[in-house]
UniProtKB/TrEMBL annotation:
Keyword vocabulary terms for this entry: Kinase, Transferase
Keyword Transferase set for record: yes
Protein name as it appears in the record: Adenosine kinase
Pfam families attached to this UniProt entry: PfkB
PANTHER family documented for this protein: CARBOHYDRATE KINASE PFKB DOMAIN-CONTAINING PROTEIN (PTHR43320:SF3), SUGAR KINASE (PTHR43320)
Leader sequence residues: none
């Protein structure tokens, strides 16, 4: 097997986030489930945007955020996702290129579906409620996969949200096939417990058939995956179904399953003020995958994940404000 020239390739929805602070009353009035992600069409996207207060534009999307985190840690990152050649699409591409993330996907033409965007409503308790218009993201197909990039990546990371559009689902499976044929690893994030509810059996099948080797999830997603309120029972099933898993536990840190040392739990570093939880899971994956791609012990991978998540929740937006590589060095976590 050739040496990898990319640490982590992420494949997912290329989305520009529009973030705004809001009150609980707004969610109640609009009948929005706090903490959830719902898919909306272009009309609803415009309606919600019109009701929002002043917003901040940030390139986002789960997989894009993870790639950004890997690059900030000093890793070699790449991203595959679909945008249109419009203002938001060019904004997204510029952001990825400026932080050193390879982005080989050709955009849709100016007459194609608009670039995806997500209206993120942040309540005073720092919880985020997302309203996502996928737009051009749904146009990702197997033809958009850059084979040399996949074959050259130590780990290909796929977001669960990509399972919604049928064409993207085909790309998801083909990317895993290419990666495994090249002797590489494939990771999946479950993304959201509502996403898990939609595709529970299919996600379990991806694990049992070995289509994915590594799974990322949080506490509610694991229980939703197995339809149980018994967290320990869900963990035991997860251990049987996939080679390696990392489950985030909020303030209690994270739990790694399937490694040679058995279960490994790592605490979360203290954060002075939690401002916005958007992207916490995405950046945890950044640190964990970067460590894994460099051969670090699983405990160190989880520590890098916790460090990256801790930085991201200290400010608004799902991309690091400073160098995670420098922060890791300060905390004695350099690889």
């Amino acid at each position: 097997m050739a040496q990898a020239d990319i640490d982590v390739l992420t494949i997912g929805n290329a989305i520009v986030d529009v973030l705004t602070q809001t009150e609980e009353d707004f969610l109640v009035r609009e009948k929005l489930v706090k903490g959830s992600m719902r898919l909306v069409d272009a009309g609803e996207s415009e309606r919600i945007y019109g009701l929002m207060g002043p917003g901040q534009l940030v390139s986002g999307g789960c997989a894009g955020n993870t790639a950004a985190g890997v690059a900030s840690l000093g890793g070699r990152a790449a991203f595959i996702g679909k945008v249109r050649d419009d203002d938001l699409g060019r904004f997204f591409r510029h952001d990825m290129n400026s932080i050193g993330v390879r982005f080989p996907t050709n955009p849709l033409g100016a007459d194609g579906t608009a670039t995806g965007r997500c209206m993120i409503l942040i309540t005073p308790d720092t919880e985020r409620t997302m309203n996502t218009f996928l737009g051009a993201c749904q146009e990702l197909t197997p033809a958009d996969l850059d084979r040399p990039t996949i074959e050259g990546a130590a780990i290909t990371y796929l977001e669960g949200y990509l399972w919604d559009p049928p064409k993207a689902k085909e790309a998801f499976i083909e990317a895993a096939r290419i990666a495994h044929a090249a002797g590489r690893q494939v990771a999946l994030t479950l993304s959201d417990f509502f996403c898990v509810d939609r595709y529970r059996e299919e996600f379990i099948d991806l694990m049992k058939t070995g289509t994915v080797d590594i799974v990322f999830a949080n506490h509610p997603e694991v229980m939703a995956l197995y339809g149980t309120e018994d967290f320990n029972a869900a963990l035991e099933q997860l251990e049987r179904d996939v080679k390696l898993a990392s489950v985030t536990l909020g303030a209690e840190g994270s739990l790694v399953l399937g490694g040679p040392e058995g279960r490994v739990q790592v605490g979360a570093p203290p954060v002075d003020t939690i401002v916005d939880k958007t992207g916490a899971g995405d950046l945890y994956a950044s640190g964990f995958l970067f460590g894994l791609s460099r051969g670090a012990p699983l405990g160190r991978c989880a520590e890098l994940g916790a460090l990256s998540a801790g930085e991201i929740i200290s400010h608004v937006g799902a991309r690091p404000l400073g160098s995670l590589k420098n922060l890791a060095a300060q905390r004695g976590l350099s690889l």
